[in-house]
Known about the structure:
34% of the residues are buried. Helix content is 36%, strand content 19%. The protein has helices at residues 14-23, 40-49, 65-77, 91-98, 113-118, 167-189, 201-204, 209-216, 232-237, 239-250, 283-286, 293-309, 321-330, 346-351, and strands spanning 28-32, 55-60, 80-81, 85-86, 122-131, 137-148, 152-154, 195-198, 226-231, 254-261, 278-281, 312-315, 334-335, 344-345. An eight-stranded mixed β-barrel has the order 5-6-8-9-10-11-12-13. Strands 1, 2, 3 and 4 form a four-stranded parallel β-sheet that branches. Helix 2 (40-49) links the parallel strand 1 (28-32) and strand 2 (55-60). The radius of gyration is 22 Å and the shape is globular. It has 378 residues and is an alpha/beta fold.
Amino acid sequence: MxxxxxxxxxxxxxxxxxxxxxxxxxxxIVLGLAEDGGxxxxxxxxxxxxxxxxxxxxxxxxxxxxxDEVQAIAEGLGLSLLPPLVMPFNxxxxxxxxxxxxxxxxxxxxxxxREALRFGWLELWYQPKIDVRTLAMHGAxxxxxxxxxxxxxxxPAYFIADDGDPRLELxxxxxxxxxxxxxxxxxxxxxxxxxxxxxxxxxxxxxxxxDYLCRKLPGHTAFEGILVESNGVDILRNLDFIRGLxxxxxxxxxxxxxxxxxxxxxxxxxxxxxxFVEIKVDRKFVDGCANDGLKRSICADIVKLAxxxxxxxxxxxxxxxxxxxxxxxxxxxxxxxxxFAKPMSAESLIxxxxxxxxxxxxxxxxxxxxxxxxxxxx
Length: 378
């Protein structure tokens, strides 16, 4: 793991583990499991006794019932267990398990989006949205990536334009065009799915931006709608503008999703008009909610808010079974997170089990069906 910028300490018994925990508690414990399970119970109890609040990553040679036993004990002790990593594994699989612990940094230079477009480095990757009840895919979110020939996949923080940056319009239009192309690709290869794209509020304040989006949308009868995700803080700052925009959106089967909602959620309470079809709770409130009463309370209140207005809810960053069970019990509609699926290319999504033909008849709730309620329900 040294290649991921993590400091590694090896413990061969619980005494050494206790010494490490007492000195400087790590963020991650990699728990190697023997064929018969070994003495993993002692390790988990040691972690719980020391109040370990980090993540536990089980490392196994193959799928085994031992994992179920580890999961049950970990949940009983209040520990946060990551999905198991089966050996042998490559860097990509390891990164997918510990991504939340890795810093958002890149060894490469800050990227120029124009250069990426000119050389064809820009891609859209898709992370499935999973129904918490059926565990079937309910659409997917499009996420921007750059595949640099030297630096590999460059994190979005190194090329996404800030508000007011002249590249903002170029980036947003590219996302729209690529997402529509991919919608047709998904439809031809499997079936039509609901896509969500991230577009900042300032983009729609530019002249002709709304017309550009509407012109690009699929005219096919199979097209049921598209979601535009915008940051919750930005929406609140421009609430009157967004209300007017939402009215125009409806005629084109476009819904607005409040993305990364967090501490500002209370400001959405009591609105007479609530033109949003979806609320996505920021991962910082979802991660660890199974064992954190404050996070759980905030999540539950946001679900109540959404239910009041007839909007659906998405829990972002679900990475442990404990958090999954917690958000399901709270009444979330959908989840996103590495526990079930990481972002992947359009081609990879087509080949994944999430788009198997038998999943289509489950019938996810589209924008058309989940219509906005203009006054709260009592």
